[in-house]
Amino acid sequence: MAEEMMNNKQIILKHYVEGYPKESDMEFKNNNIKLNVPEGSNVVVLMNLYLSCDPYMRNRMKNLEDSYVESFTPGYPITGCGVAKVLKSGDSNFQEGDLVWGMIGWEEYSIVTPTQSFLFKIDHDKNVPLSYYTGILGMPGITAYVGFYEVCSPKKGETVFVSAASGAVGQLVGQFAKMLGCYVVGSAGTKQKVDMLKSKFGFDEAFNYKEEQDLDAALKRYFSDGIDIYFDNVGGKMFDAVLLNMKLHGRIAMCGMISQYNLKKTEGVHNLLCLIAKRICMKGFIVSDHFHLYPKYLEMIIPQIKGGNIVYVEDIVEGLKNAPKALVGLFYGLNVGKQVVLVSRE
Ligand code: NAP
């Protein structure tokens, strides 16, 4: 690869965002990049292949103080999880031609420091789609694994409720719970997604939360004896209604609160008293604290994928230019399954 300047198309965040994000908050721009490793540097030069659209990225569009994630810098490319190919490397752990996933720029080429980008080398089995490293074999996959098995302490026969159940994380949580022999119900925002939960992922029941006037009544319809485990992806009114329906000694994994990310002032919760009365264990978690479990997770999940016991639905859009639209779509439920952007083929 020559060291001359290359064109590098990028997605730039124009300004901090209030309310629902819009495509116009981001800009598709042509920039230049020199694809070389400076003398003595340990950076890695990447050609980006797949980008992952993730709800937490919305929070990075805010001017955050004291948060577990850093704000994006207006005027610069946004960053997120993605899959890339190593073009050049100043780090002996990575060689030209390696496939990796980790934190990369929303651009055609990125120059990253492996530790800062938590780059994982991909041992690519051609029977598994490479894009899966943005989802089931990447960050959302470990999230579902840690959140369900570690945080929820599930047992066979328990009742499990998953919100945003057809998404990148939710579809896996539901399938993990079914593999363990739990009764699993999911909520989602369209009929297509509700049907998919039952026919594709094997949920016992599913409902469209947007069509329910009374979420408490909807939950009672599916959990006449209550919920042992709630995997919360949405927060807000659904979380409040779930509290009323938890069983004694139930567990709640606080994974995400997408219903709150675009609000200026987050909604209040009214039913927290249930935590005491029902001796509920509720725990928040951040996936990056658990990355050491990644090899163990891969060992478990790859045979399950190959054996057809676990399926994964992706929603892949082509072209970096379309990445802002795909990201914004998460907050309107436009994605069906894991939202991925194909930037370049391997
Ligand atoms: P996803 O489910 O693939 O996509 C987001 C989905 O959320 C949308 O498709 C939409 O589906 C639903 N949604 C959007 N706005 C909503 C609202 N106002 N109320 C209810 N549902 C809404 O996303 P994901 O990657 O799997 O992430 C799921 C959750 O996990 C997010 O909250 C995310 O922040 C969190 N997460 C946490 C960690 C961690 O380390 N703790 C890691 C990864 C993800 P519907 O059509 O069903 O509404």
In short:
With 346 residues, the chain is an alpha/beta fold.
CATH superfamily placement of the largest domain: Medium-chain alcohol dehydrogenases, catalytic domain
Which cofactors or ions or other ligands sit in this model?
Answer: NADP nicotinamide-adenine-dinucleotide phosphate
Order of helices and strands: EEEHEEEEHEHEHEHEHEHEHEHE
User: What fold name stands as the CATH topology of the largest domain?
Assistant: Quinone Oxidoreductase, Chain A, domain 1
For the biggest sheet, the summary is: 7 strands, mixed
Which labels suit this protein?
single chain; 346 residues; alpha/beta; Quinone Oxidoreductase, Chain A, domain 1; Rossmann fold; seven-stranded mixed sheet; 23% helix; globular; binds NADP nicotinamide-adenine-dinucleotide phosphate
Descriptive notes:
It is a single chain. The protein is globular. Strand 12, helix 7 and strand 13 form a beta-alpha-beta unit. The protein folds into 2 domains: 5-135 and 313-342, Alpha-Beta Complex (Quinone Oxidoreductase, Chain A, domain 1), CATH 3.90.180; 139-288, Rossmann fold, CATH 3.40.50. Strands 3, 4, 5, 6, 7, 14 and 15 form a 7-stranded mixed β-sheet that branches. A 6-stranded parallel β-sheet has the order 10-9-8-11-12-13. The chain has helices at 56-60, 139-151, 170-179, 191-199, 215-222, 236-245, 273-277, 294-306, 323-329, and strands spanning 5-13, 26-34, 44-52, 79-89, 99-105, 109-112, 120-122, 159-162, 183-188, 205-208, 227-232, 246-254, 281-284, 314-318, 338-342. It is of the alpha/beta class and 346 residues long. Bound molecules: NADP nicotinamide-adenine-dinucleotide phosphate. NADP nicotinamide-adenine-dinucleotide phosphate is lined by residues 54-56, 140, 143, 164, 166-170, 188-190, 193, 233-234, 255-259, 285-287, 330-331, 333, 335, 338.
